[in-house]
Structures are given as C-alpha cells and as structure tokens.
Write a structure and sequence with these properties.
- The protein is mainly alpha-helical.
- The chain has a four-stranded mixed β-sheet, with helices on both faces.
- It is built from ten helices and four strands; from the N terminus they run H-H-H-E-H-E-E-E-H-H-H-H-H-H.
- The chain has two domains: about 1-60 and about 155-210, no CATH class; about 70-155 and about 220-290, Metalloproteases ("zincins"), catalytic domain (Zincin-like, 2-Layer Sandwich).
- About 65% of the residues lie in helices and about 5% in strands.
- The protein has helices at about 1-25, 35-60, 60-70, 80-95, 130-135, 135-150, 155-185, 195-235, 235-245, 280-290; strands at about 70, 100-105, 110-115, 125.
C-alpha cells in the first residue's frame, strides 16, 4: 500500500509543481498561454509534460546506481561475478543487444531490475539476496526477464507514455480551469485568477490519478511479455521456478522511482490492484503455464 501511495503521489507532486511554474509564468512574467489558443497551450503542456519524464529517463542509470548502491562489475573478482557477467553477455547476444553494464546491489530481498535510456547502453542489476537464494538456472531466467525489458525498449516506452499522459493532464486541467474561472467564477481578467489555479490543481489531481492507472496497466502488461521473453531465453521451467522463488520475498519494495523496473514488487488487493506496477506472481506463473 505504501509503495502504491508513493507512486501516485510522486507523479501528482510533479504535476502540481509544473502547474505552479506555469501559474508563475503567466502571472509574474505576463506570458498568457491561452492567448495563443489551444494549440499554443498544447505545445507548452507537451514541453512540461515530456520534460520531466525524459530527464528522468536520461538520468535513470545514474539515479539507480546511487539510490540502490549498485556496484558495477568492471572487472569480475570472483567466479560468481564472472558467471554473472558472462550470462548477461550471452543473453544480450541472443537478444541482439549491446552489452549492458552489470551490477550487484546489497539487499536481502530477491530482486533485479534493468534501466537505461538506450537499448545498447542499459544497466542490469541483481540483489545480493537473489544471488544467495536462487539457483543459477533461476538467476539466468531473471536475467532473461530483464534483458527482455531492455530488448523491448520498455524503459523508453514507459517514459514516453508518462510524457503523453502528463501532457494531456496539464492541457485538460487548464482547459477545465479556464472554463470554471470564466463561466462559473465570472473572472473577466486577461490573466488567470485564483479560481483558475485552484480548479486546475483539483483537475490535475483527478486526471493524474487516472493517468497513473493507465501507466500501471501498461507496466503490468509488459511484465507478462518480459516473463515470456525470459522463458524463451532461459527456459519456461526455469522462469516459472524463479517466479515461485520470488513469492518468498515480497516484503521490502524497491524505492518508488525504480519499482516499475524491478521484477518483484509484492501484491495488492481490491481497487489498489489498479495501481500495481506488476501483476500478482500467481497470475504471471499461470500465464507461463498456458
């Protein structure tokens, strides 16, 4: 529940900050976006809507390394590290990818993630807990899952989807704010009034929640594809075994910014399932068995 709350609130906070910036631009610098019609407003909304998601994508590897304390294996120091790097190289070759950076982060939870702005310059990292508790065939399946994310361009697609949704959230919220400000609150000023600002913030909150549901839906669908890709690269039986092992480790989620890129993020019930970035593991296992 906490990680889902953070996922939604973080995106809403970004949208709120953008709304404040746009309000300042209009009322302090006198740049009235609505004067250029809906076309001009849509351009500004796209700039702000895509700006945050694309910057986040560009910094994704740097952020992941520092937030998770990832130690990139530049020169393997043990047989396990040599095996890990060699396995990633072999899977990347099978998927026709450039060699990703390979790293390990210290965590008891069994988890792994892949991130990066480009398919041929990604980062694949696994937790120390995963290496300790899984067999090598299971680890290979997890690595296949992450390599499939990279091969499918999931990090880029997710960032673009978030950018598109943020654009329309900002655009529609300001249209709604303008209608309320002028038609209901009867503000005839050239600039936007406080009614416009408050209405826009409320509309962004509601539309932002809807956008988060769409992003989470896409994230769940791509997990099924990544599981299938892991099964193709490392064997369906090994992928199923790995997912079954992950069911034993669902208590310590990754930081909110990286949850959508991990392989193991727990589960939720009821309406909160709409905000899950990953399907329940039982559903993922069942999908591989069909």
């Amino acid at each position: 529940m906490k990680r889902i709350f953070l996922f939604v609130v973080t995106n809403l906070a970004v949208l709120a900050l953008l709304s404040v910036v746009l309000y300042i631009v209009e009322n302090v610098f006198g740049v009235h976006l609505m004067q250029g019609g809906t076309g001009g407003l849509l351009v500004f909304a796209a700039i702000f809507g895509f700006g945050g998601s694309l910057i986040s994508l560009a910094l994704s590897k740097w952020t992941a390394k520092r937030m998770m304390g990832v130690r990139v294996i530049e020169s393997p120091q043990s047989e396990l590290e040599r095996w890990l790097v060699g396995t990633v190289k072999r899977l990347a070759d099978q998927a026709h990818l450039g060699m990703p950076e390979v790293g390990i982060f210290d965590a008891e939870e069994m988890n792994a993630f892949a991130t990066g702005a480009r398919r041929n310059a990604a980062l694949v990292a696994v937790s120390s807990g995963l290496l300790r508790n899984m067999s090598r065939t299971q680890v290979e399946a997890v690595l296949g899952h992450e390599i499939t994310h990279v091969a499918n361009g999931d990090m880029v697609t997710l960032a673009l989807l978030q950018g598109v949704l943020n654009t329309f959230v900002i655009f529609l919220a300001r249209i709604i704010g303008g209608i309320v400000d002028r038609a209901i609150l009867r503000n005839d000023r050239q600039g936007s009034g406080i009614g416009f600002f408050l209405t826009t913030m409320l509309a962004q909150f509601v539309l932002g929640i809807i956008a988060s549901v769409i992003v989470c839906w896409y994230s769940r669908r791509r997990e099924f594809r990544a599981d299938r890709g892991g099964a193709d690269l490392a064997g369906a039986g090994n992928m199923i075994d790995a997912l079954q092992m992950l069911k034993r480790s669902q208590g310590a989620p990754m930081p909110q910014q990286l949850q959508a890129f991990g392989i193991n993020t727990g589960s939720s019930d009821g309406i909160m399932r709409l905000f899950m970035t990953h399907p329940p593991l039982d559903e993922r296992i069942a999908a591989l068995k069909t």
